[in-house]
Target: Cullin family profile domain-containing protein
Amino acid sequence: MRLLDNVNVSTRMENTVIRIFKRVYADPCDNSLFVSRIQRMCKDKFLSSKFIKKKYNEHVLVDKVILGIMRPFDLNVDILSAVYCQVVSPQPMCKVPSFAMNAFKHFNELYSRYETKKNLKLLPQYGTAELEVTCYSQLGAIKRSYDEENSKTKIERGERKIKVVVSTYEMFVLDLFNSNDFLTGETILKETMIPKDSLLVSLGKLVNDHKLLIKRPICKEIKLSDTFYVREDL
Model:
């Protein structure tokens, strides 16, 4: 789970952990299915994935539509073999936003050139995304009168950008608020098809940890019947 959730320090640290596992779990002949799987997962993550990511970066500069704005972004992909990392995909599959699915398909096209006998499967329950959130605040209003009958009011808004690291599921939720002022938990569940328990966890983190959303009614418990809004005072 540490490898899947990117909770690791370096290959050197992982090798140290593997040596400890060998002393604890391996038999006198140094055989252990558990340890061999961990070793292969490390190889996939730190060697195989590194190679294909390098080839991908050499192939093209990723330039996709993110949140309605054309701008380049960095794509970091880990590829693990299903034989050694037996992860169950959520059923049914959640709805992946078009910008994320396009990035996956674009990467998969290149990957298939090097690994013709392997098929990639997207696991949206893992991974993180670094997002740049643009916050707008009303600084004040300036009223200019040309005469008694005609007047014009100009409202100036301040713009502030903050960066936040969220899970993939949390990114899917935030994407909905680009076109909605508020959403109920039931609507978010229907639109994303994220598993209910995972969605409640994601909403809780967006409200309580990242403080990007607020909810009504105000209480600690997160429910699908709650209504969620983007926090204006970020």
Summary: The chain has a mean pLDDT of 76. DSSP finds six helices and seven strands in the chain.
